[in-house]
Amino acid sequence: MNRTARALGSSGRGALRLTVYLLWTLLLIPLQALAVARNWGLCRTLPAFYHGVCARLMGLDVVVRGQRADGPVLFVSNHSSYLDITVLGSQIPGSFVAKSEVGSWPFFGLLARLQRTVFVERKARASVDKQRDDIGSRLDAGDSLILFPEGTSSDGNRTLPFKTALFAVAARRIDGRPLTVQPVSVAATRLDGIPMGFAFRPFYAWYGDMDLAPHLWQAFRLGGMTVEVEFHPPVTIDGFSSRKALAEHCHRVISNGVACAISGRPSIPAPVTEATSAAPAPTAASA
């Protein structure tokens, strides 16, 4: 069997990974449910541990660059797959902001609720203020949140335009200081050491009208995938003229990070066209 065939998967490997993943998940669900119900600190730290183990079970080698800012932080990331949840969840002790439909999905909706996901109605303009307040209250409580402002998943080869409405929360001040916003780029780059390129990247990316079950099964069958995560310099709204300008800066930085990762070039910091105020000092990203 040649290298490419091995990379594209084995049913035996997929069955083993899927079995262990389900056992691991079912083992932790009662503990996380109890932690959420009792509001234990464990409910904030257990998901990162869970996702870290899941990443290893699925053969995801997460390569981290840059430094993760200390919370509360609004992390802004591109989005190409449900696997982004595992990848980012293993590196960031926080909760996701997701469209409301996710909460009704079988099994994965339960996992999202147990991670204390903030669900939003992306098409309901009348509820923008409520959604901003829901997100803001979590940040006020000291939680970090992960936002996918593209509004949908891409093919992983580019970053779609950002929707600016939810950037309104960036105007919030935490203990009198502007909220820290940190752009994060995520890119699947190699499959068993082979550059993924346009041909292999759909094995990671889940978008358009792809069916979830077959794609998930293929993901469990695949060889090891390298996923590069880069934490870019954090900023605050005080350094920009508007939330639109902040969103455009985040999009530019993340697009550059994705393009550099998939091309194998070193990441070059994107220029900041408006003066940025100092953000709180970052801490080292978790391994």
Automatic annotation (TrEMBL):
Pathways per UniProt: Lipid metabolism
Chain ranges passing through the membrane: none
Entry keyword annotation includes Iron: no
Recorded GO MF terms: acyltransferase activity
Pfam families per the UniProt record, alphabetical: Acyltransferase
Residue span, Phospholipid/glycerol acyltransferase domain: 73-189
Matching SMART domains: PlsC
Alphabetical list of InterPro entries matching this protein: Plipid/glycerol_acylTrfase
CDD domains on file: LPLAT_AGPAT-like
Keywords: Acyltransferase, Lipid biosynthesis, Lipid metabolism, Transferase
PANTHER family: 1-ACYL-SN-GLYCEROL-3-PHOSPHATE ACYLTRANSFERASE, 1-ACYL-SN-GLYCEROL-3-PHOSPHATE ACYLTRANSFERASE-RELATED
Record-given protein name: 1-acyl-sn-glycerol-3-phosphate acyltransferase
Organism: Azospirillum melinis
Lineage: Bacteria, Pseudomonadati, Pseudomonadota, Alphaproteobacteria, Rhodospirillales
